[in-house]
C-alpha cells in the first residue's frame, strides 16, 4: 500500500548538535546548535545554524521561522514544548519524535522506516524543552 508519506518529496529538518548528518541529534529542539535539512528530491544535506538558540526568549518561534524559510515540511526532534509545538503546527510543519537514535542520519533512517511517532501535542513533563 502506498501512502502520501511514501510518494511526497520532503525537506526534513533534524535538530542536531553539529553541522553534519553524522553528528549527534540534539536533546532540545529550539536550542539545537544546527538543523540538518535533508532534501529528499535532490538527496542532499544542508546544515543551517540555529541563530535563535541563544535568544533569551522566542527561541521556539525563531527556530520554526528558520525552518519555514527553508521550505521544511517535516521536523525530527526530541519532545517539543508548548511554544515550539504551536509554532510548528501554525506553520503546518509536521513533527516526529526521536528517542534512541544517536545521530542525525539514524533519526532520518528511522523516519523513513516509519519508526518515529508523530508528535501530537506538546511535552507535559515539566521541563522547558522548546
Concise account of the structure shown:
The chain is α/β, with parallel strands linked by helices and 130 residues long. It has helices spanning 4-7, 59-69, 82-90, 104-112, and strands spanning 11-16, 34-39, 44-49, 74-77, 94-97.
Characterize the structure shown.
The protein has 130 residues and is α/β, with parallel strands linked by helices. The protein has a single domain (7-112), classed as Dinitrogenase iron-molybdenum cofactor biosynthesis domain (Nucleotidyltransferase, domain 5, 2-Layer Sandwich). The protein contains 4 helices and 5 strands, in the order H-E-E-E-H-E-H-E-H. The chain has helices at 4-7, 59-69, 82-90, 104-112; strands at 11-16, 34-39, 44-49, 74-77, 94-97. A 5-stranded mixed beta sheet has the order 3-2-1-4-5, sandwiched between helices. A hairpin with a 4-residue loop joins strand 2 and strand 3. Helix 2 (59-69) runs parallel beside helix 3 (82-90). The longest helix is centred in the middle third of the chain and has 11 residues, at 59-69. The protein is globular, with a radius of gyration of 13 Å. The termini are far apart. Residues 126-130 have low confidence and may be disordered.
Quick one: CATH class? Alpha Beta
Binned, the helix content reads: 25-40%
Number of self-contained structural domains: 1
Tally of helical segments? 4
Classification by helices and strands: alpha/beta
Shape: globular
Strand order of the largest sheet: 3-2-1-4-5
| CATH architecture tag | 2-Layer Sandwich
Oligomer: single chain
CATH topology: Nucleotidyltransferase, domain 5
Radius of gyration: 13 Å
Mean pLDDT, nearest integer? Answer: 89
Uncertain residue ranges: 126-130
Q: Give, in order, the helices and strands.
A: HEEEHEHEH
CATH superfamily: Dinitrogenase iron-molybdenum cofactor biosynthesis domain
The major beta sheet can be summarized as: 5 strands, mixed
Report the portion of residues in β strands: 15-25%
Gap from first CA to last CA: 36 Å
Strand tally, please? 5
